[in-house]
Specification:
Elements lengths: L3 E6 L5 H10 L4 E5 L10 E6 L25 E4 L1 H9 L3 E18 L14 E12 L4 E7 L6 E4 L4 E4 L11 H12 L8 H16 L3 E6 L3 H14 L3 E7 L7 H11 L4 E5 L1 H8 L5 H20 L5 E5 L4 H10 L23 E3 L7 H10 L4 H4 L19 H20 L8 E15 L2 E14 L7 E2 L4 H14 L3 E6 L13
Parallel strand pairs: 1-2, 1-3, 3-4, 4-9, 10-11, 10-13, 11-12, 13-14, 16-18
Antiparallel strand pairs: 5-6, 5-7, 7-8, 8-9, 15-16, 16-17
């Protein structure tokens, strides 16, 4: 049984960051809503209570039942969690007289406290709260303070319960990782043995037991998640895994052939389906981005379903679902975090398929998926790929879709992406691509007037796609790309560079 830290989510925007920081310490953890968490067993070494946008004094404030947790195992309350436990014990929590948001410095640190061991006096921390703890119960001891927050951290005497008013999980808390390590390693006693290699071994054994000799079908996209999921399943069940890779005609230039070749080298059992005409015919005349997305999703279901029905005795559908998708789905089903989308990994396959679902990556964040991929020996050209939208180039062609427009954008995109690689810039960019605009501009070529297409180049830096900054690519590089695109791609006479960040813009234009 893998040891774990349980994180109870009260709706904080930082809850996923807590999990990421704990996992960076090679310790497995899970996020669950405060009002719907698993039974406490010996695998759970400690519990972290997250922050929350709510006030503990709200009528409908989150009030978890912690009877099986408090005084029975180590607990760390963060922000709301700290205020909740203070109030629960009889303390007073009230609105702050001064705004307590942003950087602060600890003015008092009790290094004799197991939680604060090695934390420097004046260490920078990040505050984000409207309430503050005015008074603590008698058996609560302050172990850290700032100028404006007397109760920045406390310990409940005679227990393994510690609480902090600041957020150690965010980058601005400079010793946040050390503090979390003090809790999960020093106080909870976790072994720090949850690694990519151990995940592979454990997951492959579990898949062998779960699937036995059953057959599994998986829709490959050429991306990181589906590729790593495929390799884990292949390692577990070999040729009983049947992969389907659909060419919707909206992939990058030569991507279908290149990815298929890579999968063959890896030994995967892959069927490539050329469905270009099906998708392009269905998209003809449609300009609305949501309509285009729905058409592509619907046609993918049709093609995948038709190919899957050619296979005999398939019992399972594999998906490349990763942990952020699972967390969002849990939130949809009653958790407190704000929900961005409900999760439908493959787009909602027909119920008539009647297949059971297997998701070998459902416990991993994106960076962890890449580490597991490296442990499995997956080539860097797949693991290091930039994210690519599910609808492909359809949402990078503004307006209606034609075969000719796809060809133009594929050629432009290939020059840009290959240029990033050749100039050593690809790995410093999180996502890049080209957009074909629905306008023409006047130009001059060989003393002749032209009236041709405009393309925009886009390159952003991000960690998770939720926010993104445009990348300051060298002017010399952009000039070279512009010149090469205009000279080599017939029909384009103007290139622009998108310098919008997210927010207020989005990464994709549609």
């Amino acid at each position: 049984m893998v040891e774990k830290i349980l994180i109870l989510d009260f709706g904080s925007q930082y809850t996923q960051l807590i999990a990421r920081r704990v996992r960076e310490l090679n310790i497995y953890c899970e996020i669950h809503p405060y009002n719907h968490f698993p039974a406490i067993d010996s695998s759970i070494k400690g519990v972290i209570l997250s922050g929350s946008p709510a006030s503990v004094n709200d009528v409908e404030a989150p009030t978890p039942n912690l009877d099986d947790i408090l005084n029975k195992m180590p607990v760390l309350g963060v922000c709301y969690g700290a205020q909740y436990l203070a109030k629960l014990g009889g303390g007073v929590v009230a609105k702050s007289n001064t705004r307590e948001y942003g950087r602060a410095n600890l003015q008092f640190v009790n290094n004799d406290s197991s939680l604060m061991k090695g934390i420097d006096q004046h260490s920078q921390v990040w505050m984000s709260h409207g309430d503050t703890i005015k008074t603590l119960p008698q058996n609560y001891t302050i172990v850290a303070s700032t100028n404006d927050v007397p109760v920045a951290a406390y310990h409940i005497d005679g227990t393994q319960t510690y609480c902090i008013q600041f957020h150690p999980e965010v980058y601005h808390s400079t010793q946040g990782t050390e503090l979390l390590k003090n809790f999960v390693v020093g106080i909870c006693g976790c072994q720090q043995n949850w690694t990519a290699d151990s995940f592979v071994d454990t997951t492959v054994n579990e898949l062998k037991q779960k699937l036995g000799s059953d057959k599994v079908v998986l829709g490959l996209s050429g991306g990181v998640d589906s590729s790593v999921a495929a390799m884990l399943l292949h390692k577990a069940i070999g040729t009983n895994l049947y992969c389907i890779f659909v060419d919707n005609g909206l992939l990058r230039k030569d991507e279908f052939e290149e990815v298929l070749e890579t999968y063959k080298v890896l030994g995967l059992n892959v069927t490539g389906v050329n469905a270009k005409s099906i998708f392009l015919d269905a998209l003809a005349g449609h300009s609305d981005p949501e309509k285009k997305r729905k058409i592509i999703g619907g046609k993918f279901i049709d093609v995948f379903d038709a190919e899957a029905h050619k296979l005999q005795d398939i019992k399972w559908l594999a998906q490349g679902t990763i942990y952020p998708d699972v967390i969002e789905s849990v939130s949809v089903n009653g958790g407190p975090s704000a929900t961005i989308k409900s999760h439908h990994n493959v787009g909602g396959l027909p119920e008539t398929m009647k297949l059971k679902i297997v998701e070998p990556l459902r416990l991993l964040f994106k960076d962890e998926v890449r580490r597991v991929g490296r442990a499995l020996g997956i080539p860097q050209n797949i693991l290091g790929r930039h994210p690519f939208p599910g609808p492909g180039l359809a949402i990078r062609i503004l307006g209606d879709i034609t075969k000719e427009k796809v060809q133009v954008l594929q050629d432009v995109d290939a020059i840009f992406i290959n240029g990033l690689k050749e100039h050593g810039l690809y790995d410093s960019v999180w996502q890049a691509g080209a957009i074909l605009l629905p306008i023409h501009s006047v130009g001059v070529m060989g003393d002749e007037r032209t009236y041709e297409k405009v393309v925009a180049l886009r390159a952003v830096q991000s960690t998770d796609g939720m926010t993104a900054d445009w990348v300051h690519l060298p002017y010399e590089f952009l000039a070279k790309m512009s010149n090469e695109i205009i000279n080599k791609v017939r029909g384009v006479n103007r290139v622009v560079y998108d310098i919008s960040s997210k927010p207020p813009a989005t990464i994709e234009w549609e």
